């Protein structure tokens, strides 16, 4: 077993609202909490807390409270921050939904999570409404933040003068959020994260990430995903920093917002690092305000990290984790220049880890110097989820009897506790940090009349970034092209789930029990790349 090189931190027994906002000083209340990156409109901590409290009071007056699940489908905006914390402040649970989702995806999540309310915005309303109706949610329970006749708006909620309810929840067991994740098996599942999970992860990560009150933190990573939720929406607020929200990613806007708002701390996923390292436009903007970039959600190549640090003359750090871990379990801390940028750093405080052999299940020994053999990374700590919603089987398969969560990631660890992710044993594909379950794409491919069999794996594009690639067995003598197949998928899935490469083969490798042998396909892919 190995742990953090840092001593344990105290985890207060509080709701996430009390933890983040309960001890704001007068001076802190006047600081800027959120800036709308597009318009420049700013909200102070005082206004934010007032809005959170009003939203909580209004929702509670409408019967929203402990036991209610509210879907939240909204891009990154200042309003998101007030609504999100308002729902939690009312004691209800937020199931945060990917804004790229199709109506079918949205409906599945609303239905599975048992959501009875949905909060969204007019640009997403058509799809959201169809999905909500199909999930049995009526118009009066669909809040449209920016206003739509027949629906409550944020302004309506803020105008209700009802006190926020006095809550008596147990932070350790009360489910605060239900983001969806595939984990180590196929379909997306509701990840039950308690108030304590969320509080713990901010406490565990805050000193290592090192956001300070004077930081302007660019919030381009979506708040609906656990990375944006914990590191931006919670951690940046706890540090009394200012968030600059970006509703839709666009590289030129990204550069402009950093320059115009003098952003100092920027959280990214690896594809953005590629653009920062290579794009000629970078030279045309003043990015001198950036002191630190932190990348997470997918592997960051060491040479790429170095190129970014050199071009922007800033620090580059890396974080690793997963939705089920709230998410941060490993980080390169802000004050650790000696750690390799190809590693994901060290274990955060209050966590135990071990590596186990994927063949024997035996624990892998950690050498006294040098680096261990690779094995599956197992993690345990106060930030590990309560379990998957209504899915005890998947929970038991993921968290073992000793409380260790099996990440499905293959790692090595050095004698100094430096962890490097070297592979993934689970099926999950990450495209730009977004999750894709290959089984979903395989099921869709099999509905194509000219496809006999199919398997999807993660492959590398020219920049070394992961993309979903389909191996396809065509129906004999049918002349189906790769382009036709990609177009067929594109028409039916959210944009991040598109199949981006197709290879025709004679047969999909399968085990005797009929399971796709993904590792054979991955080996074939690797061999072809050499
Ligand atoms: N290197 C290699 C990485 C890395 C990685 C994630 O969608 P989820 O469930 O969750 C996330 C979490 C992102 C995140 C965690 C902690 C942190 O500090 C940070 O940056 C500040 C971001 O994406 O996907 C989880 C899966 O994504 C892969 C890995 O396979 C993991 O199980 N993954 N980060 N740095 N792979």
Automatic annotation (TrEMBL):
Residues 440-515 form the AMP-binding enzyme C-terminal domain. Residues 29-389 form the AMP-dependent synthetase/ligase domain. Keywords: Ligase. Pfam families: AMP-binding, AMP-binding_C. Transmembrane segments: none annotated. Coiled coil: none annotated. GO terms for molecular function: CoA-ligase activity. It comes from the Bacteria. PANTHER family: AMP-BINDING DOMAIN-CONTAINING PROTEIN-RELATED (PTHR24096:SF149), LONG-CHAIN-FATTY-ACID--COA LIGASE (PTHR24096). Belongs to the ATP-dependent AMP-binding enzyme family. This is 4-coumarate--CoA ligase family protein. It comes from Cryobacterium flavum. The lineage of its organism: Bacteria, Bacillati, Actinomycetota, Actinomycetes, Micrococcales.
């Amino acid at each position: 077993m190995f742990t953090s090189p840092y001593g344990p931190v105290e985890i207060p027994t509080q709701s996430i609202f009390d933890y983040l906002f309960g001890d704001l000083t007068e001076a802190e209340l006047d600081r800027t909490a959120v800036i709308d990156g597009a318009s420049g409109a700013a909200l102070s901590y005082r206004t934010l807390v007032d809005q959170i409290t009003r939203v909580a009071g209004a929702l509670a007056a409408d019967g929203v409270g402990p036991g209610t699940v509210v879907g939240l489908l909204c891009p990154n905006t200042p309003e998101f921050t007030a609504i999100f914390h308002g729902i939690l402040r009312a004691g209800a649970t937020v199931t945060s939904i990917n804004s790229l989702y199709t109506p079918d995806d949205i409906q599945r999540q609303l239905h599975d999570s048992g959501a009875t309310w949905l909060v969204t915005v007019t640009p997403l309303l058509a799809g959201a409404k169809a999905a909500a109706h199909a999930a049995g949610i009526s118009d009066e329970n669909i809040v449209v933040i920016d206003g739509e006749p027949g629906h409550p708006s944020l302004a309506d909620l803020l105008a209700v003068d009802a006190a926020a309810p006095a809550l008596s929840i147990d932070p350790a067991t009360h489910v605060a959020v239900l983001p969806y994740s595939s984990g180590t098996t196929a379909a997306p599942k509701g990840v039950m994260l308690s108030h304590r999970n969320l509080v713990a992860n901010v406490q565990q990560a805050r000193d290592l990430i090192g956001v300070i009150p004077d930081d302007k933190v660019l919030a381009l990573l979506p708040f609906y995903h656990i990375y944006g939720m914990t590191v931006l929406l919670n951690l940046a607020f706890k540090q009394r920093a200012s968030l600059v929200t970006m509703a839709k990613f666009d590289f030129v806007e990204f550069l402009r917002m950093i320059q115009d708002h003098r952003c100092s701390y920027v959280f990214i996923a690896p594809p953005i690092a590629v653009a920062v390292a290579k794009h000629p436009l970078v030279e045309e903007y003043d990015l001198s305000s950036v002191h630190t970039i932190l990348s997470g959600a997918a592997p960051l190549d060491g040479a790429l990290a170095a190129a970014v640090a050199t071009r922007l003359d800033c620090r580059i750090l890396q974080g690793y984790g997963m939705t089920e871990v709230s998410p941060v379990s490993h980080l390169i801390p802000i004050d650790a220049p000696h750690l390799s940028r190809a590693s994901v750093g060290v274990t955060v405080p209050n966590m135990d880890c071990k590596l186990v052999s994927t063949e024997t299940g035996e624990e892998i020994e950690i050498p006294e110097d040098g680096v261990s053999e690779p094995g599956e990374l197992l993690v345990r700590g106060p930030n590990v989820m309560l379990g998957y919603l209504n899915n005890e089987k998947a929970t038991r398969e993921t968290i073992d009897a000793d409380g260790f969560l099996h990440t499905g990631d293959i790692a090595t660890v050095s004698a100094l506790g430096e962890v490097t992710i070297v592979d993934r044993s689970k099926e999950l594909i990450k495209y730009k940090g977004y999750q894709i379950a290959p089984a979903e794409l395989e099921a869709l491919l099999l509905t194509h009349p000219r496809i006999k069999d199919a398997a999807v794996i993660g492959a590398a594009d020219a920049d070394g970034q992961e993309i979903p690639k389909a191996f396809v067995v065509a129906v004999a003598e049918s002349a189906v092209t790769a382009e036709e197949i990609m177009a067929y998928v594109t028409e039916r899935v959210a944009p991040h789930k598109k199949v981006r490469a197709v290879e025709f083969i004679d047969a999909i490798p399968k085990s005797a029990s009929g399971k796709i042998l993904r590792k054979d396909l991955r080996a074939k892919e690797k061999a072809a790349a050499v």
